[in-house]
């Protein structure tokens, strides 16, 4: 068995054990991160240039994905390439996949645990394009898989490049009449657009209905405070706040984080709103200058070690501000101003600058 396939088997086994209800030992995860990073550094020049200066492997800044193809395999072996949102090619991160098996395993296990813990299937209403209309988007890929895995019926309310308000209204009215719960899934921007456009229309969706919103407002006309949007969505659709959750992901990652309130609303006990970190992932706020972990609930920039990133780089350094809350993470938005010094130096080193 090749080294790649051996690593892949270990990652698969870890995610599958979790999905079957077993505990994942953080020490085994950390050992796998070490082995994976060592293998990736030997085959990805940009990552191999980074010098390790802490107890963990070096982390590659997300900006490098905008300027280099970060992959341990040749381009002819790509089966899918995801691009981040952005108005020009220089703003778009690129994540090439040799296969999507680990992405699928991670996405399904995380969603089953945090978004659909109480249902095997549910009617889905998706406020985002179908995968066929946005093949470069990892979000649309994931939502299309959700339709296959969790949807007993699925309505795509985003068509021809825009939100179809009549279609959305019709499916929500039918859901009200049926008394069956539904799941509304989409981008924060789509929910803002619906809020701006639905006018006086209000809905009382059945108990057990839920909302998953994700993404920011890059390239959009306006942003809305998350607390304001949370309250607006609850009022619009008749869904209690714990069943309205954010999903956190990124083009450079293969795993997703979810807010904890829905799962806690089903199983209890309730806790503060925070992001659950999958046990095959390590999420750590670090100092923006030294890139070393910060203590306690100190705000840092978020480092994410995602073992589902087999054929790119598992150790990723973001510029998102974050802090620990209990056993989870709260993301506070992007660091303002210039790129954090530690990220800038690491990016220069990875690309051979200076």
Distance between the first and last residues' Cα: 39 Å
The count of strands amounts to 16
Label the structural class.
alpha/beta
Radius of gyration from CA coordinates:
20 Å
Number of helices: 11
CATH topology title of the largest domain: Rossmann fold
- Taking pLDDT < 50 over at least 5 consecutive residues as the criterion, the unreliable ranges are none
Question: Would you kindly provide a written description of the structure presented here, covering whatever features stand out?
Answer:
The longest helix is centred in the N-terminal third of the chain and has 18 residues, at 26-43. The chain folds into 2 domains: 3-77 and 279-350, Luciferase, Domain 3 (Luciferase, domain 3); 103-276, Rossmann fold (3-Layer(aba) Sandwich), CATH 3.40.50. It is an alpha/beta fold and 354 residues long. The mean pLDDT is 92. Helix content is 35%, strand content 22%. It has 11 helices and 16 strands. The chain has helices at residues 3-19, 26-43, 45-48, 64-67, 101-114, 138-150, 165-178, 188-197, 226-237, 261-267, 341-350; strands at residues 60-61, 80-83, 94-97, 122-127, 151-156, 158-159, 162-163, 182-187, 210-214, 244-248, 257-259, 275-276, 281-286, 300-306, 315-325, 328-334. Strands 5-4-8-9-10-11-12 form a 7-stranded mixed beta sheet, with helices on both faces. Strands 1, 13, 14, 15 and 16 form a 5-stranded mixed beta sheet that branches. It is globular and about 60 Å long.
